[in-house]
Each structure stands twice: as structure tokens, then as C-alpha cells.
Design goal:
alpha+beta, Alpha-Beta Plaits, 2 domains, 9 helices, elongated
């Protein structure tokens, strides 16, 4: 009798099956969390790249410094502008002296040919053709502005590169989501499949559907919770390792984003495990007798 009961109920096999289910969920959620972290850093890097693209506004020769500084303050109030830097004609001459030599102005009889200018960096979201064109047109209409110099080809190349990378990452994350949902659903479905005879036995003795579903749903929630926690621990370990190797890549301002990703992974794991468990239990509760042995 004892041997027979041990055959029917094997705690080692049960623990192994539950561990495999939790581990499968954890690994899938970890990959999803890692990709979300990678996407965040790729997005941040693309924004930094865009915001490093500068425009140079050259001012009229007769522009007074007071008017130039007043114009710079006006630029800073523009919603598209991230930062500005005023460079006087004297500062421009000094910069060029460092590049071409201190005596390069002697050719022109010590006349300073360099005009005062304002270097402008736009916000990342404003670095598109329409916004730039409108911005430059408004600048060139100012009396103090001579002309605006910017690398249109560079802006176009950056936008094209960012668009291509974004499209690739978006397609990849959609594929990863589909794989994650499919794998977690199939893993839980196999776990419930091994209990299909137990479900049928409970139905035959008159147990209500809610009573049958409850322990399975609680177990599914538990699997999703533990899997999400393990995934977050693995993700935290990877972030910690990267911060030790590349300190400039992981900064304190990133911590809230990491927290949001961890919460999203945990919530996604719990929700997906619950839904998959509910669907699987519902399916096996109303399964025909001949299909129980397939």
C-alpha cells in the first residue's frame, strides 16, 4: 500500500515539475526585461546623439553684444531649444588662433573677420525636417541674424539611422513578446495537463467550477510571482555587473526606469501566468472523455 502511494504521489517529481515551470517563466521574463533595458539605453543614446547636433546662428557685423545676449535669452525660451552658447567675434578669433596659429590675422592687417555667433542645440524630439525648417525660417527673419549654418545631411543621416534601428528593435520586441506569451502559456498548459484526471475526478464528485479553478489559479499566480522575482534578481545582477565594468553607462538617474521595468516584468509575469492558468483549467474542465487520454 505504501509503495503504491509512493508511486502515485512522488514529491520529488512534483517539485521538479514546479521548478521547471518557474524557471521557464523566469528565463523568458528575464529576456524580456533585458530587452526593455537595452531599448531604454538605445533610446537614451539616440537622444544624446540628436541633442549633440548643433546649429550656428551668425549675427550681423553691427550687432551689439547687448542685443546678441538678449536674442540668446529669447532663444532659450523656445520650446525646441535645449541649450545655447554665445560666441563673440573676439572669442571666435581666439578659437581660430588655436587652430590656425596666433599670427593668422596678420594676413588681414589684424582685422577680425569673424562674426559673433550663437551655437544652438535642439531637443531630441525637435530634430526633424519640419521643425528644423520652421525654426530656421523664424530665425532668418530676425534683424540681428545674418544666416544660419547647419548640417542638413548629418541631420538626415541621424534620423534615418534612428528610424531604422527603432523599427528593428520594435519588430524584435514584438517577436519576443509573442515568444514569451507562447512559451509561458505552453509551460503552464503542460503543468495543468498532468492534472487533467484530477480535474475530471473533482467534476465527477460534484465540485463547483470555482472550487476546481481556485487552487490552480493561486498556484499560477505563485508561479508568475516567483518567476518575476527570479527574473528581476537576474536582471539586477546583470545591471550591477555592467555598472562595475562601465560606470558611465549606469547612472543614478536610470534607477527609477529600472524600477519601472522590474515592476512591469513582475506584473506581466503574474498576469500572464494567471490568464494562461485560467484558460488551461477551463479547457480541461470541459474536455471530452475520449480526449483525456490523448
Amino acid at each position: 500500500m505504501t509503495k503504491k502511494r509512493q508511486k502515485i504521489f512522488n514529491p520529488v517529481a512534483l517539485w521538479s515539475a514546479n521548478f521547471s515551470t518557474v524557471l521557464s517563466i523566469a528565463l523568458v521574463l528575464f529576456m524580456l526585461g533585458f530587452m526593455l533595458t537595452f531599448i531604454y539605453h538605445a533610446f537614451t543614446a539616440s537622444n544624446n546623439l540628436k541633442e549633440n547636433v548643433s546649429f550656428t546662428i551668425y549675427l550681423m557685423d553691427d550687432t551689439k553684444e547687448e542685443d546678441a545676449l538678449s536674442f540668446e535669452k529669447e532663444l532659450k525660451k523656445n520650446k525646441n531649444v535645449k541649450s545655447t552658447q554665445y560666441i563673440s567675434s573676439e572669442q571666435a578669433a581666439q578659437i581660430m588662433s588655436e587652430v590656425m596659429g596666433e599670427n593668422h590675422l596678420e594676413v588681414l592687417g589684424s582685422t577680425n573677420p569673424y562674426a559673433a555667433s550663437i551655437v544652438v542645440n535642439l531637443k531630441a524630439e525637435s530634430l526633424n525636417y519640419t521643425t528644423i525648417k520652421r525654426f530656421i525660417t523664424s530665425l532668418e527673419a530676425k534683424d540681428v541674424v545674418d544666416h544660419v549654418d547647419y548640417r542638413q545631411d548629418l541631420v538626415k543621416d541621424i534620423n534615418n539611422a534612428v528610424y531604422n534601428v527603432t523599427a528593428f528593435i520594435l519588430a524584435f520586441i514584438i517577436c519576443l513578446l509573442i515568444i514569451a506569451i507562447t512559451l509561458i502559456n505552453h509551460t503552464i498548459r503542460l503543468t495543468i495537463y498532468s492534472k487533467r484526471f484530477l480535474i475530471r475526478s473533482m467534476e465527477l464528485v460534484g465540485a463547483k467550477p470555482g472550487f476546481i479553478r481556485k487552487p490552480f489559479l493561486l498556484k499560477g499566480l505563485f508561479f508568475g510571482l516567483i518567476g518575476g522575482l527570479i527574473a528581476n534578481v537576474l536582471l539586477l545582477g546583470i545591471i550591477f555587473w555592467i555598472s562595475r565594468k562601465y560606470p558611465l553607462l549606469i547612472t543614478p538617474e536610470n534607477y527609477p526606469i529600472y524600477g519601472m521595468i522590474a515592476i512591469a516584468i513582475l506584473g506581466f509575469g503574474i498576469l500572464l501566468a494567471f490568464i494562461s492558468t485560467f484558460i488551461s483549467v477551463f479547457r480541461f474542465m470541459y474536455l471530452r472523455d475520449e480526449k483525456l487520454y490523448r
